[in-house]
Design a protein that fits this description.
Layout lengths: L3 H16 L3 H35 L7 H13 L18 H28 L3
Length: 126
């Protein structure tokens, strides 16, 4: 028969093993965190483009430092491909700047969301 001290030692040892994660569990956890971070970055980029397009539509005061910061950030996030002035599609005539911002930054936001979701699904462990 085991003494109480031996039983306590056995419980303590098994408890430590239960808390320790295997290397596979660590990799799975890290992949899950990386997938979440990538999705969050892509989501924030899409939000910046959408808010930037909204500010252009509303003709927000470009001298305002917050508006200027959002528009500058949106100009960086569009990667030059979805540029509001020289993007995928160019509109001409009345309200061309508004149409360009809505179309190009809107497409850019959708691309960020799709790319983020695809990357998140690829990286996240199954």
């Amino acid at each position: 028969m085991e003494t109480m001290a031996e039983q306590g030692d056995a419980r303590e040892t098994s408890g430590k093993r239960g808390r320790r994660m295997s290397s596979r569990q660590v990799v799975t956890r890290v992949r899950a965190i990386v997938a979440q971070v990538i999705w969050l970055i892509c989501l924030l980029a899409a939000i910046v483009l959408a808010v930037g397009a909204l500010l252009v539509v509303l003709k927000a005061n470009a001298d305002n430092s917050l508006v200027k910061a959002v528009l500058n950030l949106a100009d960086r996030v569009d990667l030059g491909v979805f540029d509001r002035r020289n993007g995928i599609k160019q509109f001409h005539g009345h309200d061309a700047l508004i149409k360009n911002a809505l179309f190009n930054w809107g497409i850019g936001a959708v691309v960020w969301l799709v790319a983020g979701r695809l990357l998140e699904r690829i990286i996240r462990p199954t």
